[in-house]
C-alpha cells in the first residue's frame, strides 16, 4: 500500500495530498542585477511572469548562479504574483542568501551541494523561514558512487532516499522530491518506485527532453501514466523551447491524464488543401487569449465544411470556414455567418458573451 501523501506549502500554493497537480516552468535567461526593485527592467520581468501566470503557470524557478542573481531573485519575489523558486547548484551559501528574501522554495541537487553540514545549514534556515526545499535528483549529476550504477532509475531513487533520510534526521519535512532522467521509461519507473515507498510530493518531468516535438512526446509518454495513477504533485515539461510552450504542454498533459483542474480545450484541424479558413493563422493570433480563459470551455477552430460544422457544433464555441465565410457555433447552433475578413470581430463578440455567461454562473 502506498504511504499517505504529504502536503507541502510553497508560498500560496499547496502540493501533495489531494491538491490539484500544479504547473511550473523555469525562467530561461539570467536575471539582471537588481538593488531596489525600482529599476526599469523590473516591470518587464514582472510582465513576463504575469503572462506565464495567465496561461497557467503556478510556480516559477530561476537559476541562481551567483550572489547578484540570488539578490535579484529575492527582490523580484517580493513583487511576483506567483511563488518563485531558487535553483541552486554547488554553492549552498546562495540558498542561504535567497532565504533572506521571500523566495518560496529552494531546489538543491544532492549530487553537487557537497558536505552534509552545508545541507544542514540550508535545512535549518528553511525551517526557520518556512521555506520548502526540493531535492532535485538528476541522472546527469548523481553522487559519485551512483554514477556507474547500471539501473539509472534505481540510482536516482537511491540518491533521493539518502537525502530524505538526512532531512528526516534534521527534522525537516517540507520536502518535494524530483528524479529526472531522459528516458521516459526510467522516469516512470523511478517515480513509481518512490511513490510506493514515500509520502513526499513528487515533482515530475523528463530531463533534457529535447526540442518541442520530442520533448512533448517524451514527457507525455512518461507523465500521463503516472498522473493517471495519481502519482505526481507538480510538473515541469522541460523543452528546448519557450517557457510558454512548457506551460501549455504541461496543461495538455494534465488534460490528457484527466488531472486538469479547469481550462480551455482547443480542438482545431490541421488544415489541408480544402481549407477556406486559415486555422494556423487564426490560432497564432488567438492562442494566448484562449489559453488565458480560466473557465472549462471547449473551442473549435476548423478550416472547412468537411469536418468543421461537426466539430464546431459539439464545442462551447466553434468557428469554421464555409466557402468565403465563417460560421460561428454556440453549443450546437449557428449564431453568426460572416465574411472571412470579419472572422476575428465576430469571434471576439461570441467569445466575450460566452465568458460573460460562464462567469455569471459561478
Ligand atoms: S476540416 Fe477541412 S480544412 Fe480542416 S483538415 Fe479537415 S478537410 Fe482539411
Question: What brief labels describe this structure?
Answer:
eight-stranded parallel barrel, alpha/beta, 362 residues, TIM Barrel
Mind sketching the topology for me?
Elements lengths: L6 E4 L2 E4 L5 E5 L13 H15 L4 E5 L3 H11 L6 E5 L3 H7 L6 E4 L7 H14 L2 E7 L13 H18 L5 E6 L3 H14 L4 E3 L7 H17 L5 E2 L7 H14 L7 E5 L10 H13 L5 E6 L5 H7 L2 E6 L2 E6 L2 E7 L3 H18 L2
Helix pairs in contact: 2-3, 3-4, 5-6, 6-7, 7-8
Iron/sulfur cluster binds next to loops.
Care to describe what's here?
The chain has 362 residues and is an alpha/beta fold. It folds into 2 domains: 250 residues, TIM Barrel (Alpha-Beta Barrel), CATH 3.20.20.20; 97 residues, 2-Layer Sandwich (Sulfite Reductase Hemoprotein, domain 1). The chain contains 11 helices and 15 strands. It has an 8-stranded parallel barrel, surrounded by 6 helices. Strand 13 and strand 14 form a beta hairpin. Helix 2 runs parallel beside helix 3 and helix 6 runs parallel beside helix 7. The longest helix is centred in the middle third of the chain and has 18 residues. The chain is elongated and about 70 Å long. The protein starts with 6 loop residues before the first strand and ends with a helix. Iron/sulfur cluster binds next to loops.
The gist of it:
By secondary structure, this protein is α/β, with parallel strands linked by helices. Helices cover 41% and strands 21% of the residues.
Amino acid at each position: 500500500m502506498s504511504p499517505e501523501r504529504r502536503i507541502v506549502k510553497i508560498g500560496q500554493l499547496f502540493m501533495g495530498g489531494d491538491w490539484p497537480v500544479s504547473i511550473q516552468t523555469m525562467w530561461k535567461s539570467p536575471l539582471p542585477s537588481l538593488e531596489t526593485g525600482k529599476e526599469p527592467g523590473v516591470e518587464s520581468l514582472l510582465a513576463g511572469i504575469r503572462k506565464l501566470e495567465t496561461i497557467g503557470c503556478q510556480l516559477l524557478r530561476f537559476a541562481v548562479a551567483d550572489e547578484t542573481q540570488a539578490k535579484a531573485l529575492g527582490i523580484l519575489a517580493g513583487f511576483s504574483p506567483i511563488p518563485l523558486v531558487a535553483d541552486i547548484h554547488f554553492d549552498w551559501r546562495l540558498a542561504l542568501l535567497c532565504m533572506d528574501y521571500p523566495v518560496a522554495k529552494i531546489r538543491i541537487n544532492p549530487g553537487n551541494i557537497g558536505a552534509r553540514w552545508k545541507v544542514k545549514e540550508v535545512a535549518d534556515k528553511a525551517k526557520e523561514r518556512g521555506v520548502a526545499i526540493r531535492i532535485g535528483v538528476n541522472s546527469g549529476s548523481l553522487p559519485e558512487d551512483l554514477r556507474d550504477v547500471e539501473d539509472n532509475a534505481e540510482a536516482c531513487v537511491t540518491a533521493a532516499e539518502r537525502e530524505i533520510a538526512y532531512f528526516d534526521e534534521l527534522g525537516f519535512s517540507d520536502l518535494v522530491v524530483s528524479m529526472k532522467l531522459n528516458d521516459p521509461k526510467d522516469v516512470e519507473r523511478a517515480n513509481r518506485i518512490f511513490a510506493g515507498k514515500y509520502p513526499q510530493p513528487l515533482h515530475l518531468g523528463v530531463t533534457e527532453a529535447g526540442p518541442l516535438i520530442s520533448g512533448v512526446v517524451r514527457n507525455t509518454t512518461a507523465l500521463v501514466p503516472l498522473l493517471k495513477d495519481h502519482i505526481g504533485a507538480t510538473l515541469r515539461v522541460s523543452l528546448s523551447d519557450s517557457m510558454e510552450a512548457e506551460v501549455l504542454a504541461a496543461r495538455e498533459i494534465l488534460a490528457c491524464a484527466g488531472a486538469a483542474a479547469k481550462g480551455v480545450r482547443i480542438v482545431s484541424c490541421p488544415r489541408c488543401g480544402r481549407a477556406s479558413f486559415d486555422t494556423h493563422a487564426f490560432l497564432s493570433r488567438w492562442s494566448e487569449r484562449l489559453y488565458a480563459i480560466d473557465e472549462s470551455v471547449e473551442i473549435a477552430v476548423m478550416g472547412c465544411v468537411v469536418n468543421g460544422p461537426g466539430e464546431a457544433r459539439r464545442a462551447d464555441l466553434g468557428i469554421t470556414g464555409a466557402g468565403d465565410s465563417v460560421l460561428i457555433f454556440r453549443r450546437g447552433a449557428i449564431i453568426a455567418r460572416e465574411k472571412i475578413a470579419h472572422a476575428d470581430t465576430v469571434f471576439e463578440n461570441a467569445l466575450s458573451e460566452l465568458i460573460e455567461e460562464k462567469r455569471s454562473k459561478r
